[in-house]
Protein: Protein arginine N-methyltransferase
Organism: Scophthalmus maximus
Amino acid sequence: MKTFCGRANPTTGALDWVEESEEYDYHQEIARSCYADMLHDHDRNEKYYLGIRAAVARVKARGEKVIILDIGTGTGLLSMMALTAGADFCYAVEVFKPMAEAAQCIVEKNGFSDRIKIINKHSTDVTVGPDGDMQMKANILITELFDTELIGEGALPSYEHAHQNLVQEGCEAVPHRATVYAQLVESELLWSWAQLQPVEVGGARLVPPPAVGHCAGAHSVCDIQLSQVSPKSFTPLGPLCAMFSVDFSRPVSSAFQSHSSQFVAQSSGQAQVVLSWWDLDMDPSGSIVCTMAPSWKYPQPKMAPWRDHWMQSVYFLPVERGVTEGEELNLTVCHDDYSLWYSLQSRSQQTTDSQTEALHSRPCCTCQAHLLWTRPRFGELNDRLRTESYLSALRSVGQEDSVCLSVSDGSLLPVFAHRLGAKKVLCFEHLCIHCTFSTLRLCVELLEMRPDQLTRNDIGGEQISVLMGEPYFSTSLLPWHSLFFWYCRTALAGLLQPNATILPCSATLHMVAVEFEDLWRIRAPCGTCEGFDVTPMDEMVQQSLDFHESREAEPHPLWEYPCRALTQSTATMTFDFTQCVPQQPISRKGSVPLIRVGRCHGVALWMEYHLTHDITSSAGLIGPISEQGDCEWVRHRKQGVYFFRSPWESSGDGRAAVSYSFTFEPSLGDIKMDFSIESG
């Protein structure tokens, strides 16, 4: 049996549906999962173990037989903890078939198969009774159904169903309770990810039209490693508020709810962003707490546990508004069964029923931009230094008689070219977000076709003098997928003037071998977790990593994941956009000495775009590597990461080196790569 999977095609810029074996989705899901990250999260595991022991002890103290329901069991770890703590029997529910099979192997390997029943179903399909999946209802409910937003994986409907059908009234629950916290802040950095900002071009200040500036935006959460956002990047306007709690030991509702917190503004500023995270109380007394707070909330930030499966949330208010120190404010959070959203009002403000209803309604994008641009893309377009680089490049190549054609998704380059005096500016409509500036429809001609379909008649019999791109394409997953620009340039070769300017004129693929502070955990085998053998899980993940493209580089925003460079940054391949895509593959081999002491986990890869001979825009490192190897990464693009199967201990004397081999396949638009460590 075959399955169709969507995959970015760098040669066409499209999402192609490719036929793969029926195992493909499974292997991709496992290879890219966070199972290893969760198993390496000792703080999470320890708090769950303590909570489970306490819950089992409470039930035993009542003289009852301890029956566990473990929803979302994963590896079966929590069920094994429960039996070790004295539980009599566990029903462990896991909907993902490969994971359920791995859990079965793990419980057998640890000698618990006679007291743990793995149920490969969604919990809402589980039945209770003599012929059911469960012989009796459970009196302890253990779950790990949470995501960064707490409820985004359907925790509320699952709890609601479990209390109605699968557990006894008055059951114990681990975790016992969750509390959501929020803090109102002003942050130019974070707000730049929500709304397009004015930009100075050619002596004029371009302001987005009201349809964009007043749009409430998309309601989806922005989940990030908030520990990597310096407190200097935002100003708290109010205290940290406990917005609401959910008691998992009692019936839970998945219906719409709203909760408000009143406070006095502690600073004056622009209310723009809500920072949020949650805590889990593993016991009723709240003495066993697992918190998702960012590291800068800890007295000793270095002691904060690292986790990638649960991060922190950033919510953008529908409209920014000024607040004054001492003003009484009301912050409201609403949630349905899967998502949260926030609104803010002054307590002195009288609201009608319709206004209250509007405040509680889910934000909805009405300008199209928030549906087409990601949060990082907004940040990229609002990056003033980056914008100035492109403006400087356009000024240096543009002339009054320039005929400019833009090839990039949702780019502002056509607006810039027009404001800088180009005679004619064209853009492919499917690559253009013409709603961003009201003047764009008037100054830019939109082409309703693909680059390979364009003829000279379509551009009024003229030739293109400036072909420009950032390049950025929404279908790109890895840095080199933006080479679609090169394919467009090749398709348009017959329409270019003999001396046409290509901007960027070239791109370079860079690499650096790195030691990750924490990201290595997502790929590291666990072996033994809290005393339990979970090697079947390690073997399953490795098998999936060895399957097809799962063993290749993967995208990560490295500004969220600190690392140290153990080699110099090295340019490995250059792609000359002034020439057409070659028909034959391009191969490069070489090696880079390991010059710093550390544990080499893999290689970071990114593209640098040479806009002109002296202006470069990096989609990776944005500054020199420090003497200690510290790296600063651009915030708006993902870099490629190639993980080694096993880390290499570098002595830093340069005798060991990372060898690399790259092959660019023109027919595929992709780069095949291989790395190894050579010791001297």
Remarks:
- The longest strand covers residues 597-610.
- The chain has a mean pLDDT of 91.
- Residues 27 and 544 are 5 Å apart (CA to CA).
